[in-house]
Amino acid sequence: SIDGQRLWDSLMAMAEIGPTENGGSCRLALTPEDAAGRRLLLDWCEALGCTWQVDRVGNLFIRRAGKRDDLAPVAMGSHLDTQPKGGRFDGILGVLAGLEVLRTLADRDIVTERPLVLVVWTNEEGSRFAPAMVASGTYAGAFSVESTLAREDRDGVTFGEALQACGYAGESPVGEPRLDSFFELHIEQGPVLEEEGETIGVVTGVQGMRWFDVTLAGQSAHAGPTPMRYRRDALAAAARLIDRLQAHALADESGDTKVTCGCLEIVSASRNVVPGDVKLTIDLRHVVENELDALQAYFEGLLSEVGETCGVTVTQERIWASPVVEFAPECVAAVERGAREQGLKYRRMMSGAGHDAVYVSRVAPTAMIFVPCRDGISHNEAEYATPEDCAAGTQVLCDAILERANR
Amino acid sequence: SIDGQRLWDSLMAMAEIGPTENGGSCRLALTPEDAAGRRLLLDWCEALGCTWQVDRVGNLFIRRAGKRDDLAPVAMGSHLDTQPKGGRFDGILGVLAGLEVLRTLADRDIVTERPLVLVVWTNEEGSRFAPAMVASGTYAGAFSVESTLAREDRDGVTFGEALQACGYAGESPVGEPRLDSFFELHIEQGPVLEEEGETIGVVTGVQGMRWFDVTLAGQSAHAGPTPMRYRRDALAAAARLIDRLQAHALADESGDTKVTCGCLEIVSASRNVVPGDVKLTIDLRHVVENELDALQAYFEGLLSEVGETCGVTVTQERIWASPVVEFAPECVAAVERGAREQGLKYRRMMSGAGHDAVYVSRVAPTAMIFVPCRDGISHNEAEYATPEDCAAGTQVLCDAILERANR
Ligand SMILES: NC(=O)NCCC(=O)O
Ligand SMILES: NC(=O)NCCC(=O)O
Fold first, then answer.
1. Using the beta-carbon criterion (under 8 Å), do A239 and B242 form an inter-chain contact?
2. Mean pLDDT in chain B?
3. Shortest CB distance from B236 goes to which of A132, A236, A242?
4. Less Cβ around it within 10 Å: N or C end of chain B?
């Protein structure tokens, strides 16, 4: 069985690269900190005798030989980049759990039938280069290599330039190596496991997500002399939209409808001016694709209704859509067996967040393992998972990988 | 009678000082542009034989002698500063109408019993130094001279430093000269006169206004995995607050209840993060003081209710309150007589916006005259009032001033 203390020590050592004031980490994709994190991991893996290759979008594949090196490898991993004020676990756990699996096998001189690969996907967070999961998406063919290399950060630095600068512009073709299967351990990033007192989420898939940019154009006017009934208040319209959309989602007793307005900005805001122009973003999610269609239709109807009632011109653009993902039943079953055989309390669940596994599942049988995180908080310096839960998830990962690699 | 073309020419000449791309003006308070505008006015007034003095907060008093120079002067005026993308009329009309009155009297060699004073109040807009109407407020004793001089703009330049730099740091005590009465002509800044086909608003007072800073503190969370019922969404709470407050104001059939949320900001906004912290501003107005009390009570109740329903901690601070102002009946009557005798369509009305007249009315009998502005738009480069309406308002001002100065 894996060594929970060693896993924890490697998590805490990684957190020292790009530490933040309040105990989190800042390793934005393709920065010197990201490179230093990768280097530390490679040092550890080289010490185990692993070899590695980097593809043209910086995805890092660390290989441990199997008995049958002609067979496609069984893979595990996640990402090492963080949010600007990120935590010590989101992504990192999935990578360092993979390291712990490799170390455990090395300790016992176990050689699997199939080779194993530990993957570090580039720029999962999407904070430096939008969108999220862009390099696993490129690996899976959802984005072209050229478009990914051309993406710019806020300072106009391209993904390709940043990749060169940090030393991880690899040569191997994107899409290689082809994987037998892929397992990703991750913190849940939500409150369900903790609330329910469960240790393992056996992730059966990922809910569908759609992102919209919305603009509301009314007429700015002086707050004092403009009667309420003459107003075309873009913020009042936005408030109605958000309030109605919230009520709609809350009315779904299954809890499967999720709506979020994450950004809202008043153009030229002033305390005594009725807002004329508002921009906002909407994130719609559902675990069932045609329910997500229905949610989008409701949302679009609401936009028209609110626009008319408030005398505001409403436009929207759907800028991203990720369909509902169902993970491979054989991989999900392997995870579930692992949890059961370890005697851990678990539940089957859908992932609410996007992960690299979403795209990888398009080209290889895939599953995920969740462990609880305190108060469901992530993307936050306060993010925390207990050493026990990290170890339990890693054990389940190890068991699933072994089963799969030796089948 | 006054010369409408000459008035219009002076308005258009003033607009050439700090012109903006789209036909508006930018003369922020106590900038070189503000100084150049004052200088142009002084050139015009000196040519008429007027004298002038500047007080310690930069208020400019231009005097035309009367027959009885021992009596307190009858005053008129407004402000020359503008919003960053301001128009050609807001404030400027009241000053240049005063100039036109002085020129008309000079043309006909009319000397009034009482002396006349044309006042330019400093920093009415409040865009450079908050709050609005700060120098007329200082004149009237609402703010101390020291606190006004110490106010800082966004770059940390104090009011006092800016006053020195632009050459209008005067020596005369604030509060002098004491005025017999004060008349301010202004564009309505709202749509009522235009909609009703009326030329003159006989302003009987100014509605009360209260400004609040509100913060909503929930818990930021990942938009994907966080179930709706676990969320403590500060923006959803803000949306509910704004929507309910709007509905409350719209339900008042008298139209006298006005509520505006002009600024709203999400702290660390991100498209896939449930907003944890929101700041917003609320502007409440009513023409009746105890109705304004009731409106504030409703608003405060709503804050608690929304906070509880949404699991969000709501705090508020009232940062400014301007009570309902009733102008002096004898001054209002003089304006009304002027409008009636000129055969103009007029209505008695309350001002929705604050003006220098609000503070001046605390220390001298005061009234205001409104003329329509196109589409009710102000604080905007597109602000427009017709030459005919500007002339009509100036004629009413002239008649009221003459009646008052010769009584
Ligand atoms: N795990 C994660 O934060 N992914 C980003 C995409 C999403 O919003 O779910
Ligand atoms: N006229 C004007 O814009 N005054 C500023 C104060 C207010 O918001 O009414």
1. yes
2. 97
3. A242
4. N
User: pTM for the complete prediction?
Assistant: 0.90
- Is the CB of residue B287 less than 8 Å from the CB of residue B324? yes
Give binding residues of A for Zn(2+) as ranges. Answer: 79, 90, 125, 186, 379
Task: Say which residue the tokens 């409040």 belong to.
Answer: B126
Rounded Cα distance between B92 and B78, Å, is 7
Nearest CB partner across the interface for B225, out of A188, A228, A259: A188
Query: CB of B349 within 8 A of CB of B192?
Result: yes
A364-390 tens-digit pLDDT: 999 999 999 999 999 889 999 999 999
Distance from CA of B188 to the nearest CA of A (A): 7
Out of A220, A272, A273, give the residue to mutate to test ligand 2, the one with the largest number of ligand atoms within 8 Å of its CB.
Answer: A272
- Round to whole Å and give the CA distance between A123 and A159: 9
CB atoms within 10 A of CB A253: 8
- The predicted pLDDT at position B130 comes to 85
Which residues of chain B make contact with A236, given a CB cutoff of 8 A? 242-243, 246, 261
Distance CA B180, CA B73 (A): 5
Atom of ligand 2 nearest to the CA of B354: 9
Chain B interface includes A72 (CB < 8 A): no
> Which residue of chain A comes nearest to B254, CA vs CA?
A227
Q: Give the ligand with the smallest distance to the CA of A208.
A: 1
User: Using an 8 Å Cβ cutoff, are B263 and A272 in contact?
Assistant: no
- Tell me what the mean pLDDT of segment A286-296 comes to: 98
Average pLDDT over residues A119-124: 98
Instruction: Say yes or no for a CB contact (<8 Å) between B352 and A249.
Output: no
Q: Judge if the beta carbon of residue B94 lies within 6 A of ligand 2.
A: no
- The residue whose CA has the least distance to atom 6 of ligand 2 is B354
Q: Which two tokens stand for residue A122?
A: 């580039």
Mean pLDDT score, B114-129: 96
B285 touches chain A (CB under 8 A): yes
Q: Cis peptide leading into B365, omega within 30 of 0?
A: no
pLDDT per position as a tens digit, A343-353: 999 999 999 99
SS3 sequence of chain B: CCCHHHHHHHHHHHHCCCECCCCCECCCCCCHHHHHHHHHHHHHHHCCCCEEEEECCCCEEEEECCCCCCCCCEEEEECCCCCCCECCCCCHHHHHHHHHHHHHHHHCCCCCCCCEEEEECCCCCCCCCCCCCHHHHHHCCCCCHHHHHHCECCCCCEHHHHHHHHCCCCCECCCCCCCCEEEEEEECCCCHHHHHCCCEEEEEEECEEEEEEEEEECECEECCCCCHHHCECHHHHHHHHHHHHHHHHHCCCCCCCEEECCCEEECCCCCCEECCEEEEEEEEEECCHHHHHHHHHHHHHHHHHHHHHHCCEEEEEEEEEECCEECCHHHHHHHHHHHHHCCCCEEEEEECCCCHHHHHCCCCCEEEEEECCHHHCCCCCCCCCCHHHHHHHHHHHHHHHHHHHCC
DSSP code at position A220 = -
- How many angstroms away from the CA of A104 is the closest CA of chain B? 31
Do the bridges between strand B60-64 and strand B116-120 make them parallel or antiparallel, or are there none, so unpaired? antiparallel
Q: Rounded to whole angstroms, how far apart are CA atoms A119 and B367?
A: 77
What is the whole-number distance in angstroms between the Cα of residue A189 and the centre of ligand 1?
Answer: 9
Mutate to test the pocket of ligand 2, among B125, B127, B203 (most ligand atoms within 8 A of CB): B125
pLDDT in tens, B208-220: 999 999 999 999 8
- Percentage, residues of chain B above pLDDT 90: 96
* Residue A130: pLDDT band with limits 50, 70, 90: confident
